[in-house]
Amino acid sequence: MTASATGKNKQVVTRFAPSPTGFLHIGGARTALFNWLFARHHGGKFLLRVEDTDRARSTEEAVAAIFDGLEWLGLGGDEPAVFQFERTPRHAEVANQLLAAGHAYKCFATPEELAELREQQRAAKQPMRYDGRWRDRDPAEAPAGTPYVIRIKAPREGETVIEDAVQGRVVVQNAELDDMILLRSDGTPTYMLAVVVDDHDMGVTHVIRGDDHLNNAFRQLAIIKAMGWEEPVYAHIPLIHGSDGAKLSKRHGALGVDAYRDDMGMLPEAVLNYLLRLGWGHGDEEIIPIDRAIELFDIAGVGRSPSRFDIKKLENLNGHYLREADDARLAALVAPRLESRLDTQLNDRQRDILAQAMASLKPRAKTLNEIAEGAEFLFKSCPLDFDEKASALLDEPARALLIKTADALQSVPSWTVEAIEDVIRRVAEDAGLGLGKVAQPLRAALTGRTVSPGIFDVLFLLGKEESLERLTAAGHAAAG
Ligand code: GLU
Fold it and tell me: Which of 223, 294, 354, 480 is the most exposed place for a label (fewest CB within 10 A)?
């Protein structure tokens, strides 16, 4: 076979073909990513096709949610998306072409007849499939005006082989494949026909999708062969499983991509890195930013066994990418979360403080929500609510220490982290306490909690006035 006959010299074209019956779930996003990466790696094209032929179940909201999710992840198509339903006439055209060429035939079997056939097969414990009763019959035998469907004349002997790039060689006996319907009696194409025609017309060279479509591939190949079209390379990737090994469902966190973005506060680069590692590997490299992924990705690295979804791993990766992320960008992402926690709008000055605080907030957070939670103390008004642990720290001696610290800070020459540190160290020394012992009640008084960024940063970020107010208020508060 020549190189061009195997498609090796052609430009790679991949596609992601979601059915818009729900949001972009995590499994779909991974399929999109693998297609996108494969195309990028080979300098090819990545296309989108909305499989909206199921009119009852397809919705505009779902289309919008899918595009939105893809855009957030940076996985947009290289050309405007194709909408499958709009191509119905073209699908019908191909069915009629197959009919004219003798690769398909009209079947006039009535629904009652087919129900009876199924009943007989069920009783005889045979696989239920159409028996080809109109395959060789003259259509003229059907009474005039009888509705008909167009069925493919599938090969009955021999076998169909797929050299799947992930699954390896998969063989099906042709006797097991029946003459499936291409065009229904109302003239609408079946899904199987639509997929094949669209893939062909879009020039798709590599079909990378979930292995729940492997069985379909054999049926789709029958159409491709009948049309004499070039076969794409198939790569059926194992589905994602939950942490318990069962097929991924909502209960495992198989949510829409928007939930990872909005509810959980993940960064797109973290979700991409996680999805990449879910089923594909390069040694034991865990952190693989997208440029490196483009460089390394190939189908050969996709494993054959299902990978397990692990939210902890995703969170850890997210923590990594938060630490890497630009502070101004993070502040912009955190601000709305913080505003809804505080139930108030941040002003420009507060937004500046938030951006400044990012360097000390992000090292300890795994999600944007955690950063927002950690930032809350900056914008609370005095007197603070103390959580239980913080209250417990604010006993009599601690409160005396707060007043001393407030006095000492009063005369700090300039409100810098270094100057603040000098003062606090001096207070600790004078009190004969370790720095940690002083920092604890200070933290409680300044943030209302026992966990926060470093104490000098906390003081610096709050500013002199606010810091002194909080220290004095906690210092003078009646013991709780
Ligand atoms: N529309 C199908 C799905 O969402 C994908 C079909 C394909 O990739 O061939 O599962």
Answer: 480
Report the CATH number that the domain containing residue 254 is assigned in CATH: 3.40.50.620
> 3 falls in which pLDDT band (50, 70, 90)?
very low
| Same structural domain, 208 and 276 | no
- Candidate of 198, 209, 214, 218 to mutate for ligand 1, largest count of ligand atoms within 8 Å of Cβ: 209
Query: 57 CA to middle of ligand 1, Å?
Result: 14
Give me the number of domains the chain comprises: 4
The 3-state DSSP class for residue 16 equals strand
* Residue 449 neighbours by CB under 8 Å, 6+ apart: 377, 386, 387, 389, 390, 443
Pocket test for ligand 1, best of 26, 195, 202 (most atoms within 8 A of CB): 195
For 301-347, the pLDDT digits (tens) are 999 988 889 999 999 999 999 999 999 999 999 999 999 999 999 99
Q: Give residue-wise pLDDT tens across range 268-313.
A: 999 999 999 999 988 889 999 999 999 999 999 999 988 889 999 9
Q: How many CB atoms lie within 10 A of CB 60?
A: 9
Closest approach atom of ligand 1 to CA 31: 8
* Mutation probe of ligand 1 site: the residue of 51, 214, 221 with most atoms within 8 A of C-beta: 51
DSSP state of 48: E
Please say if 10 is a catalytic residue.
Answer: no
User: Distances from the Cα of 374 to the Cαs of 94, 265, 332, in angstroms?
Assistant: 60, 14, 15
Same domain for 109 and 207, yes or no, is yes
Ligand 1 centroid distance, CA of 23 (Å): 14
pLDDT band at 244 (very low <50, low <70, confident <90, very high): confident
Pocket of ligand 1 (CB under 6 A): 17-19, 51, 195, 209, 213
Same domain, 408 and 338: no
Residues 197, 90: contact at Cβ < 8 Å?
yes
Last residue of a domain, one of 217, 237, 257: 237
Ligand 1 atom 6, closest CA: 17
Same domain, 232 and 243: no
CB hemisphere CA count around 60 (13 angstroms): 0
pLDDT tens, position by position, 456-469 = 999 999 999 999 99
Kindly state the average pLDDT of the residues 219-239: 97
Catalytic annotation, pick one of 8, 247, 250, 389 = 250
Same domain, yes or no, for 101 and 185?
A: yes
Residue 339 lies in domain: 327-379
- Is 290 in contact with 269 (CB distance < 8 Å)? yes
CA of 15 to the centre of ligand 1 (A): 10
- Same-domain check for residues 104 and 206: yes
Q: What is the CATH number of the domain that holds 417?
A: 1.10.10.350
17 CA from centroid of ligand 1 (Å):
5
Same domain, 312 and 394: no
